[in-house]
Write a structure and sequence with these properties.
Structural class: mainly alpha
Radius of gyration: 21 Å
Mean pLDDT: 85
Shape: flat
Oligomer: single chain
Number of helices: 12
């Protein structure tokens, strides 16, 4: 998200080059047919090429890895890559890392002790710091649940459905159970309950609260 520098997993149209690449899967082992479920007018409006990943994702992890590798001027290094990110994206990454205390200009690698730990964790540094603090404060189980949700796609069903009002009442009941109006605490409670259920009970829970079964399991694995 430009402006907030938060990584989001949003549904969006793919580019034409991606459509051509995926067309080959229809004939991988035998002759096949590829169907594209979109209007021709929409097809014309698609972008020709997919933007490079470096221009679409936050740079905090890459910034930490560059520091750990001994790169003296990380901002200059990132700006000279084949598909360089914008100057604003690099500034956002540095500001984020300074905000969470991961950088130390006096250190040879420009990393603080926390920054070296976060560089070894394959998640966004903000979530990584949350995990570190959760361990230190003795609430790692709850924090792991929150981190799992933050690293996965939104498990709430957002498509129009006649059961939406019923789901909303059930979700409000969870908020009252938690005692705080906090998405993070609700996620922690949901995933904690989900982990203790069998497959049939999980499907029942998904139907009650309007959850996507596969995404809940994905959050649990994260």
């Amino acid at each position: 998200e430009k402006g907030s520098n938060v990584a989001t997993l949003r549904m969006q149209w793919c580019a034409k080059d991606s459509l051509r690449q995926r067309r080959g899967r229809a004939g991988r082992v035998q002759p096949g047919v590829c169907f594209r479920l979109l209007l021709e007018d929409d097809l014309v409006e698609l972008e020709d090429t997919t933007p490079p990943e470096m221009t679409r994702t936050p740079l905090e992890n890459l910034y930490l890895q560059a520091c750990a590798s001994g790169v003296p001027e990380v901002a200059s290094f990132l700006s000279r890559t084949p598909d360089p990110p914008t100057k604003l994206a690099i500034q956002f990454a540095e500001a984020c890392l300074r905000d969470i205390g991961a950088l130390d200009d006096a250190a040879p690698d420009h990393l603080s002790p926390l920054g070296r730990i976060l560089g070894a964790i394959p998640i966004h540094p903000r979530v990584g710091k949350m995990l570190v603090l959760g361990v230190l404060l003795g609430c790692h189980h709850e924090v792991l649940s929150v981190a799992g949700f933050l690293s996965a796609r939104n498990p709430l069903v957002i498509a129009p459905d006649a059961r939406r009002s019923q789901w909303q009442l059930a979700r409000e009941e969870i908020v009252r159970t938690v005692g705080f109006v906090s998405d993070h605490l609700v996620w922690a409670l949901l995933l904690s309950d989900w982990a203790q259920l069998n497959t049939g009970q999980r499907r029942h829970m998904a139907q009650r609260y309007g959850l996507v079964f596969e995404r809940m399991n994905e959050a649990l694995k994260e």
